[in-house]
Amino acid sequence: MRSAAVTLSDMEIFVFPELMMALLLANLMSPRLWKWREDPWFNGLAKMKPYRRITRLKQYIMDHYAFNLDLDTWGLTTQEREMARFRPFLDETTLRQSNALFGYEGDKYYFAIDIRTHFGLHKYNSETIPYWKTETVEAMDAFRYKEGYAAGAGECVSLAALYAAALFVVAGIPLKDIYLMATPLHSQNYVDLDDGILTNNRRLVTKKMWCNGTALSAQARRALENEQVTVVAHETGWIHTVYPGATISPEVYQRFTGKLKAFLDTPLTDEVMGNFLRHKRDIQKCFQLRHAIRGMNHFVPLEVAFQYEEGGSSLVTDTTRAALLAEIDMDQFVPEPLPGRIMLDDLEDFVRREKPNLNSAEDIARLKTQFACSCLNAEWAMESLIRFCHIEPRLPVAAERTFIPAGEPLAITRDMTREAVIARLESLRATLPVADLAFYAYRDLSRTEPAPFLKAALERNPVSVAGAKLMTDDEVEAVIAAMPGDSIYDEPGRLAQPDEVWNYGRGDGVEKALLLATVLKARSAGATARIDVAPDKAALVMNDRRIEFVSTKGLREQAWEI
Q1: Closest by CA position to 483, among listed 462, 504, 456
Q2: What whole-number distance in Å separates Cα of residue 104 and Cα of residue 507?
Q3: How far apart are CA 193 and CA 15, in angstroms?
Q4: pLDDT value at position 105?
Q5: Residue 486 has pLDDT above 60, yes or no
Q6: pLDDT of residue 160
């Protein structure tokens, strides 16, 4: 588990749910994140209300990080190899039902969009699979050194963990109000503020936005509409869909479940009806709008009206409709109702007048009659509308779990400094596993034993090995030696993994020595090597040679047998 905390692949986080919070805590300790508070962008933040602070943070993340799902960034592994690692913890059938890399394809929606192609998995056969590794904030920042990236980047778990930590450090949101959620194909957070906020990769979604029918909200809805939530992590612990035990506080989980369900349930109004039709473009052709022109009613296809929303400030679905209809070219209107189409104006009047309850069979039946037309299957339309307004999240079932406290409470509060947070986590390492794992995710070799870090380096860094495949040993050594000597981790003691050094083309001497050892050992099965580490240098001793690099990491003198 400690070694998995170093590499933090999505598979490892699925098997060891403690790692989600460990990554959050690693980012919480990062000086990079605390330095954000000095950026002029956040001037006056303390005077803002919580939601305004969060939207300010959102824009900062939007400006500084791209969503990245390049499956080649962290290399390839195989199902057989990973299954051998995880077999002591999960059986293969369970893993295949819950993890995208082992055959999971979700429900009918995912089959319809061909999920393997959607995520780029079609490039690999069923046995060869990519690592989906999660990045710390430093590794996310370092993407700017890769060709094609103008700033930082990260995949969905990385962005969720970054958001959660930044919500606490920068926006001042208490940890108790932040919940990390993972589904087989996505990760996002629920923030318990007002009616609730979801983070979705780089963006935020409020309850009002959840049912606004836009393409952005459709993307945000996808995971909770179509997937089972496999893990929920919180400062009190976690709950997992396949493990019978859970460490999250049962009271906290009950509160979260109620809040999330309320977030995903929206009463039907005329505005929501319009948003539904914006969302369901394929049935817009069955509707029309009425508009008075010079005192005479004219009619326009609904899909035409929605087209005029693009690039403008007026909407079909609110009080600006009249302004939007006034912008539509006259030749788009006809003087008689379009045959076979439902009049949206009349349907909205019905919804405003009757206020149908989508939990009532009688109200649903009355509403269904309003959808009757030759163009539309009323039964299907109602099912789609109900699903649009009400999603029942597929969460781990509390009644089927045995709740066991994770250990002593984190008790990390907003008034703490970064140094106080680190000191608190240090004090908890012996009694709270996630606090100990946080230091391995933080990659701090001055505070952790080296064995887990070295195991991760030698076993799960295939990119550098593949990248150097056509080079001789001497050429590999020369390329590594020529790299800039600065680590992506600024602090003493913290080290990058070999593939990070290779991908970003830079590294401290200790990191370079380990990168070289990783490549050379992959070429010589059974070969032994040693890295002699000192505060100011590191030396790889292998094949009767000693290759030295300068280091500024300040690590104590030690010898790593690898």
Answers
A1: 504
A2: 37
A3: 30
A4: 54
A5: yes
A6: 97
DSSP 148-177: T-SSEEE-HHHHHHHHHHHHHHTT---GGG
Within 10 angstroms of residue 269's Cβ, the number of other Cβ atoms is: 16
Distance (Å, whole) CA 475 – CA 254:
58
Q: Which pLDDT score, from 0 to 100, does residue 126 have?
A: 66
DSSP 84-140: HHHTTTS-HHHHHHH-GGGT---SHHHHHHTHHHHTTGGGS-SSEEE--B---HHHH
Q: What single string gives the DSSP state of each residue in 287-335?
A: EEEEEEETTEEEEEEHHHHHHTTTTSS--TTSTTHHHHHHHS-GGG-BS
Please enumerate in sequence order all residues whose Cβ is within 8 A of that of 5, keeping only pairs 6 or more positions apart, or say none: 12, 16, 19, 22, 437, 438, 440, 441, 452
Closest CA to 458 of 79, 7, 2: 7
| Phi, psi for 65 (deg, rounded to 5) | -140, 140
DSSP 441-478: HTTBTTTS-HHHHHHHHHHS-HHHHHHTTTS-HHHHHH
Structure tokens given for 335: 């003087």
The DSSP 8-state label assigned to residue 195 in this structure reads T
Task: Name the residue among 356, 376, 375, 374 with its Cα closest to residue 366.
Answer: 356
List CB contacts of 229: < 8 A, sequence separation 6 or more.
181, 182, 183, 241, 393, 394, 395, 396
Tokens at 215, concatenated? 């393409």
pLDDT digits (tens, 9 = 90+) for 378-423: 999 999 999 999 999 999 999 999 999 998 999 999 999 999 999 9
d(CA 122, CA 115): 9
Question: Helix crossing, 378-389 with 270-279: angle to 10°?
Answer: 110
What is the spatial distance between Cα 8 and Cα 157, in angstroms, rounded to a whole number? 10
Report the distance separating Cα 519 and Cα 473, nearest Å.
9
The dihedral of CA 54, 59, 60, 64: what is its sign? positive
Tokens for 34, please give them: 């605390």
CA-CA distance, 150 to 144, in Å (whole number)? 5
Cβ proximity of 26 and 139 under 8 Å: no
Domain spans in the chain, listed from the N-terminal domain onward: 2-265+394-437, 270-389, 446-561
pLDDT value at 237 more than 70: yes
The letter for the amino acid at 260 is: L
Report the distance separating Cα 526 and Cα 513, nearest Å.
18
Closest alpha carbon to 142 in 484, 451, 553, 550? 484
- The crossing angle, in degrees rounded to 10, of helices 418-428 and 18-29 is 140
Measured torsion, CA atoms of residues 411, 413, 416, 422, in degrees rounded to the nearest 10: 40
What pTM was computed for the model? 0.92
35 and 491 in contact (C-beta within 8 Å)?
Answer: no
**How many angstroms separate the CA atoms of 337 and 300, rounded?**
8
Instruction: Please answer whether residues 198 and 190 qualify as being in contact, where contact means their C-beta atoms are separated by less than 8 angstroms.
Output: yes
**What CA–CA distance (Å, rounded) separates 98 from 14?**
9
